[in-house]
Write a structure and sequence with these properties.
This protein has about 425 residues and is α/β, with parallel strands linked by helices. It has two domains: about 325 residues, TIM Barrel; about 45 residues, no CATH class. It has an eight-stranded parallel beta barrel, surrounded by seven helices. A two-stranded antiparallel ribbon has the order 1-2. It starts with a helix and ends with a helix.
Length: about 425
C-alpha cells in the first residue's frame, strides 16, 4: 500500500489522518496534495516514527543533520544529538555518518528518534568499498542499491540520492569553471566515479530499480542537489539548472510509480536570488516539496553561518520552500556538538515560523498574538511558557531580575508597558 496511490483512490491512511490532525488541515485537501505529489509524508512503513508532512499548505519543517566522521565517531554522542534536536523541536533528523560502525550508528539513531530519519546511502556504499581496499571509484551499482535497501530495511524514512548528477550534467559543471566547484559530498563521489569509470551514474541509469526498492517501504526519495552552489558566485549557474532539469524528469517518473519525492535545493545563494530559486524548482518540478540547506546568503561568516543561513531560510520559506535543513555555528569548521545542534534547530525554527506567518500558514500568528497579550499583561509565567526556547529565555531573565519582578532590568520603573497600562486604566479604557 502506497500512501500516494491510496490518496488517489480517496482513501485516507492512518498516516494522512495523523498529519491532517497535527497540521489542522482538512483531510480532503491533504489527500489531494499527496495524490498530486505536492505533499510528501515522511514515514517508512516499517518505522515507528511519527509521520511528518512536508509540502503545500503545511507548516515549514526543520531537519537537523548529525553523524560521525573518520575523525570523530561516538554513538552516545550522536544519540545525545538526536535527543537535543528533538527536544528543540526538529521535525526530522538525518544521519550523515561516514566514520565508525555505520550500521550500528544508523540503527541506534532510527531506534532513538521519534521523528522521521533520513540518510544518504551512497556514503555507506563508498565507505564499505574503501574499507574493502578497492577504493570508492570501484563501487558497483549493485553495492549502491544494496546500501539503499539496507537503510530502508532498518526503518529510514527518507533517503537522499544524487540521481540528477548525470554525465551530461557533469560536463556542464566542467565547462562552467565554478569558483567552488562541487561541494556536495555525494555529488563529488559520483563525479569522481563517472570520471574514473567513464560510465553513467548508476543511480540515474537504474532509477526504476531504485523506485521499486523505495516503494516496498513507502519511503520518500529526496532528490539530492549534487551540484548545489557552494559559493555565491556559482548560484543559479548552468550546471545547477541542468541538474534540476534532470530531477524534474525523475519527479514525474517517481509519481507514475506512486513513490513520494522531495527535491533538494541550493546551499549558497545571494539574497536577491533566493526567491527565484523557489520559483524555478516549483515550476520545473511541478510543485514538488522543496528541501533546502539554508541557503547561506554570504560566504564569509564561519561561526555565524547559522545566522546567515537562517536569513536565507526565512526568505526561501516565505517564497514557498517547504523543508529547511538547519545550519549550525560549526558549519564549515567542524562536526557540530550537542550545543550546536540545539542552537541550530532553534535558529531554524525561528526562520521557519517567521516564514509561516508571512505566507499565512494556519495558526502560525496565533502563537505570536498569545505571547504579545501576555507581554502586555506583564504575565511572565505565560511569556516564558510561550517562548521558542523556554530554557534560554528563563535563564537570561533570572541572571538580572529587577527589584520589581513584574518588570525587567532593561527599563525598570520606566517600563513603557506598565506606564501605558496605568494610562489606560486612568482613562477608563
Amino acid at each position: 500500500m502506497l500512501m500516494m496511490k491510496e490518496a488517489r483512490k480517496g482513501h485516507a491512511t492512518e498516516e494522512l489522518e495523523a498529519v491532517a490532525r497535527e497540521e489542522g488541515v482538512p483531510i480532503e485537501e491533504l489527500m489531494a496534495n499527496v495524490a498530486a505529489g505536492r505533499v510528501a509524508i515522511l514515514k517508512n512503513n516499517r518505522s515507528s516514527h511519527r509521520p511528518v508532512g512536508v509540502g503545500k499548505g503545511l507548516r515549514t519543517k526543520v531537519n537537523a543533520n548529525l553523524g560521525t566522521s573518520t575523525d570523530a565517531s561516538d554513538i552516545d554522542e550522536e544519540l545525545a544529538k538526536v535527543d537535543a534536536a528533538v527536544e528543540a523541536g526538529a521535525d526530522a533528523v538525518m544521519d550523515l555518518s561516514t566514520g565508525g560502525d555505520l550500521d550500528a550508528i544508523r540503527k541506534a539513531v532510527v531506534d532513538r528518534s521519534p521523528v522521521p530519519v533520513g540518510t544518504v546511502p551512497i556514503y555507506q556504499a563508498a565507505v564499505r568499498t574503501r574499507r574493502s581496499g578497492r577504493g570508492m571509484v570501484n563501487m558497483t551499482g549493485d553495492e549502491i542499491l544494496g546500501a539503499v535497501a539496507d537503510h530502508l530495511r532498518d526503518g529510514v524514512d527518507f533517503i537522499t540520492v544524487h540521481c540528477g548528477v548525470t554525465r551530461e550534467v557533469a560536463e556542464h559543471c566542467r565547462r562552467s569553471r565554478r569558483l567552488a566547484d562541487v561541494v556536495s559530498r555525494g555529488g563529488s563521489f559520483l563525479m569522481e566515479w563517472m570520471s574514473y569509470n567513464d560510465k553513467e551514474n548508476p543511480l540515474y541509469e537504474r532509477y526504476d530499480e531504485l523506485l521499486d526498492i523505495t516503494a516496498e517501504y513507502d519511503a520518500t526519495i529526496s532528490l539530492g542537489d549534487g551540484l548545489r552552489p557552494g559559493a555565491l558566485a556559482d548560484a543559479n549557474d548552468a550546471a545547477q539548472i541542468a541538474e534540476l532539469t534532470v530531477i524534474s524528469e525523475l519527479v514525474q517518473r517517481a509519481r507514475e510509480k506512486g513513490v513520494q519525492t522531495i527535491v533538494e535545493g541550493p546551499g549558497h545563494v545571494p539574497l536577491n536570488l533566493v526567491a527565484s530559486s523557489v520559483e524555478l524548482e516549483k515550476s520545473l518540478c511541478d510543485e514538488a516539496p522543496f528541501y533546502v540547506l539554508g541557503p547561506l546568503v554570504t560566504d564569509i561568516a564561519p561561526g555565524y553561518d547559522h545566522i546567515g543561513a537562517a536569513i536565507g531560510g526565512a526568505v526561501i520559506a516565505m517564497a514557498g520552500a517547504d523543508f529547511l535543513c538547519y545550519v549550525t555555528p560549526a558549519e564549515h569548521l567542524r562536526l557540530p556538538d550537542v550545543d550546536d545542534v540545539r542552537e541550530g534547530v532553534y535558529t531554524f525554527r525561528l526562520a521557519a515560523h517567521a516564514a509561516d506567518i508571512a505566507k499565512g500558514v494556519r495558526g502560525a500568528r496565533d502563537w505570536d498574538d498569545k505571547f504579545s497579550a501576555a507581554r502586555k499583561a506583564l504575565d511572565w509565567d505565560t511569556m516564558m511558557d510561550l517562548c521558542l526556547d523556554k530554557d534560554k529565555a528563563k535563564a537570561s531573565r533570572e541572571r538580572a531580575l529587577p527589584s520589581d519582578e513584574r518588570l525587567c532590568s532593561m527599563c525598570g520603573e520606566f517600563c513603557a508597558v506598565k506606564k501605558m497600562t496605568d494610562v489606560r486604566e486612568k482613562e477608563g479604557g
